[in-house]
Each structure stands twice: as structure tokens, then as C-alpha cells.
Specification:
Layout lengths: L1 E2 L6 H18 L7 H21 L5 E3 L3 E3 L1 H22 L8 H20 L3 H19 L5 H32 L4 H8 L4 H19 L7 H8 L2 H7 L2 H17 L6 H20 L5 H21 L7 H26 L10 H4 L1 H15 L5 H15 L3 H25 L12 H19 L1 H8 L1
Parallel strand pairs: 1-2
Antiparallel strand pairs: 2-3
Amino acid sequence: MMRENPADLLPELCVLAGAVLGLLTGIFLPRTRQWIVAVICAAGLVLGLVFTVLASRRPDLMTFDAFMLDPLTHLTRGVVLGATLLVVALAAGPLHNHARETEFYVLTLLAALGTILLGASSDLLVLVAAYLLASIPAYALAGFGKDAAGTEAALKYFLMGAFLGILMLTGVTLLYGLGRSTSYEPLRQGLATAPGAAVAVGAVVLLAGLLFKAGAVPAHYWIPDVTQGAPPVVAAFVTTVPKIGAFTALYRLAAEALPSTLDWPLLIALLATATMTLGNLAAFGQDNVRRLLAYSTISQAGYLLVPVAMAGRADLAEPALLFYLAAYAVTNLGAFAIVVAAGRETISDYTGLARRSPPLALALVICLLGLVGTPPTAVFIGKLLMFGTAVDGGYTWLAVAAVINSVASVFYYLRWIVPVFAPTSGTDISLRRGPCAVAYTAAAFSLVLGLASGIALAVQT
């Protein structure tokens, strides 16, 4: 079913309206009242969530011949909007009365909008436009602090994104020339009769940009520098939200656009193995908690590539990807919220946190063990689905690699957890109440989503 009705894009229009109204309102507000912009942007996100729930009850359809409205899109919308709402709440305290508070909220919503469009796109040209909308505001956010570290991080982020974006556009051009269409369904039919080697080159080059947004090997180099150099709230956003659109875009591309003659699963499986292994190995030696979380996000990208590799080969692939994305988003944001709340950079700074704030220490344990995949957290269910997807798709060796990496990751997360319960207090930590509330909320959601996984998966499928 296909039609052209702006009402089909109400969630996206709500986000856009929140960004535009927030920007216009912020122009005329004094610095002490820019919190109103946060309220406007949050209202846009909440309305977007409401319309997403309503849209999910309708039959699947194609709108404007470019956006597919199906469970993949609805879950992308919901997770992106919910995660961005948590980021806005997380930023409300640290950015209160900041000279550029309005700009932060507006740029965040625009990047979130691009991320949603990235996951919903069913046309290569729209995919490129969504990539740019998701990327350009994020470059500005990376340099939001206007300090040396942030400027360097933003420059690296921009240069890598621009270079890989050009490669992505080259891939789009090549695939269009071979398949005679940019829309996924006719493109798939056209590529089926095109020379296989040329199709493979076009797909690999196109993959470059999406791997950049996903933070996967070999386009992962920007993540540690941006995570450490940008403000912590920005790091929480760029390591979480853009990944959601990138992985759904990769899945849709594999399932709907690329021909079955292309050996896509093996390529993605190899990239998944390299990504999870490199992320884990690099995380072992990190003492800075933000760099540790940066490499953690790289390893998580490897796990998320597993259901992408199994697109079209296993029935579990789509629910595994979507559930894992939701679980990862809430858990990763919770870990970063604790860093924002404590305002500390090294593992040793968290020594004795359990004595200073038992609830925050508990939230930290839930989030870190959640990233490992410990029951009953949501990521545990996501990893079980991911393992099952790999086995179901005939890639048992990939499931084994994921299990080994998951076990190995326990050790570097424990390096952070153990000092928290040390009997002696470390540096005195002054906790921020707003970020603490976000951390508690995220940890609770991780547990609830894990315990209610049966209901969540039934609704999803």
C-alpha cells in the first residue's frame, strides 16, 4: 500500500516542530529562561511518541514513495524518541543557564529526526539526505564545549563523516547505475541481473557511511575521541541515538535492497566479529570511564551487526535487532547518566561510591552488568535473541564468537564495579540530582524491559 499523506509522518513533524519552535522561542528568551526551550522540545518528543503508538496500529504502507511505515520504522521511532527524551532530561541540569542551551536542544532534535528518517528510508537518495541530517547537527554538538578537546573531537568526527559520506554517495551512484532505480524494491530486481562484482563494490562503498554512524569497524576511530572530548551529555547522545537509525538502515538495506546473489551475510559477520573483538580488547586497558564506555559501544555495535548479517536468513533477525537496540539504548544512556551525575572521569574516582550513594551505585551495577548481558536485564534477552539468530541462520561460529566476547567483557566492567564497593571512600563526589534521576529511570527500564521481554516481543512481532 502506498500513498502521500503528511499525516503519516506526524511523529517526524512533531520533532521538527519542536526544534523549530524551540529555536524561535529561544531567540527571544533571556539566558535564565531558556529552560522553556527544553520543555518545548520535550513536548515535541512526547507528542511524537503518542503518534508513533497510534501509527503502529495501522497496516504497513509506503508513503511519498520513499518512507516505509512498518514495525521496523515504528520501533525506530519509539526508541529514538524515548532515548532523545532521556538525553534532554539529562542535559537540563548541566546546561541550565548555559549561553547556548537553546542550540543544544535544537541540534539534538534535528539529529534525532535525521536518525528516524535514516531507519525509515526505502530510497537511496533519501537515505543520503537522512545521513546528512543525522550527522551535521552531531558534528556541532561534539564541539559544543568550545574547548581544545571538544574542538579536536568535532574536527575528527566531521572529517571522517565527510569522507565516508562521500564514499557512501559514490556507492549510491554506482548502485543506481547498475539497478536503474534508487527505490529499494525495483533496485533489488535490477541488481539481480547486474554484474555481481560491480554490485559488491557498490554495496561495500555504500556500507562505509552506515558503518560510520553505527560505530563499527573499520569506521570506529572517531568514537573514543568524541566520547572523551565532547561534553558527557553529548557523548551519551552520539554513542546511542545515531546507532539506532544506522542499524535499522543496514537491516532494511540487506532485507529489501540488495539481491540474494550478493554474499552479504559473510561480510557483515566478519565485520561483526572484528568489531566486538576490537572493542573489547581496547576496553581492557582504559582507566578513563568515558573511553571505557566508548570502546564498550564499539563492542556492542559488533553484537548488533549479528542480526543484520542474518537479515532474510533467520526469522528472529528483525525482533532480535529491534529488542537489542531498545535494550542497548536505555542501558548505555543509564551508564552515561551516572558519569554526568558524578562528574568524574577515572575509575579510581568512583572508589567508595556505594558508601556515598547506594542507589547510584546500584544503578551503575545494573547498567554495567546489563551491558555484559546479565539476567534479568534487557540486554541479556537481546543477546539471547542475537545468539539464537546466528545459530538459526547457519552461522554458529558467529554465535560462539559473540559468547566468548561477552564473557571477556565481564572483566573490564568489573574493573569499574569493584572500586565502587571499596570500604574506603575516594575523592568526595558531589552528585547532580537531575542526572541521578535519569540514571535511576534508565536502570529501572533496563530491568523492567528484561522482565517483561515476553510482552515486549509479542507486541513487537
